[in-house]
């Protein structure tokens, strides 16, 4: 396992973990973002579960490489959809979470590329 994967994977896992908690506890920011994007509030907790699963998968990937690869692919897809939802809603301002979604997508792509470079 490469040191680069541990570093970027840890950053991604921590960020995903924080986002998961915010969604799972129905934090005000998650509710505001869902409302601004026209998403039903009932999806907030399932999004939190997906984020938590992504964080867990990235961490498990430190020991079981194929799990890390699968998690990285899943997180990339999750945030590509998130960016598309922001674009559909024409919600590009920082208050809508668009910069965060883009940053998460880019970080997930970096983790995926580093995982692939390190070998599965």
Can you put this structure into words, describing what you see?
- By secondary structure, the chain is mainly alpha-helical.
- The chain is 78% helix and 0% strand.
- It contains five helices and no strands.
- The radius of gyration is 14 Å and the shape is elongated.
- The mean pLDDT is 92.
Please indicate the count of domains: 1
What best-fitting shape do the alpha-carbon axes yield?
elongated
Q: How many separate helices?
A: 5
Q: What structural category arises from helix and sheet content?
A: mainly alpha
Topology as a string of helices (H) and strands (E): HHHHH
Largest sheet: none
> Low-confidence segments, ≥5 residues, pLDDT <50?
none
- Give the N-terminus to C-terminus distance in angstroms: 9 Å
Compute the CA-based radius of gyration.
Answer: 14 Å
Note the beta-strand portion.
under 5%
Mean pLDDT: 92
Number of strands: 0
Helix content: over 70%
Membrane topology: Multi-pass membrane protein
Pfam families: DoxX_2 (PF13564)
GO cellular component, one term: membrane
Protein name: DoxX family protein
């Amino acid at each position: 396992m490469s040191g680069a994967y541990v570093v970027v994977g840890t950053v991604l896992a921590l960020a995903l973990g924080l986002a998961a908690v915010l969604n799972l506890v129905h934090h005000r920011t998650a509710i505001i973002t869902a409302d601004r994007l026209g998403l039903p509030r009932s999806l907030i907790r399932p999004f939190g579960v997906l984020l938590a699963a992504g964080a867990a998968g990235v961490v498990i990937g430190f020991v079981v490489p194929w799990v890390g690869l699968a998690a990285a692919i899943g997180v990339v897809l999750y945030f590509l959809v998130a960016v598309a939802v922001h674009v559909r809603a024409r919600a590009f301002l920082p208050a809508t979470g668009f910069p965060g979604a883009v940053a998460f997508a880019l970080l997930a792509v970096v983790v995926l590329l580093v995982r692939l470079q390190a070998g599965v």
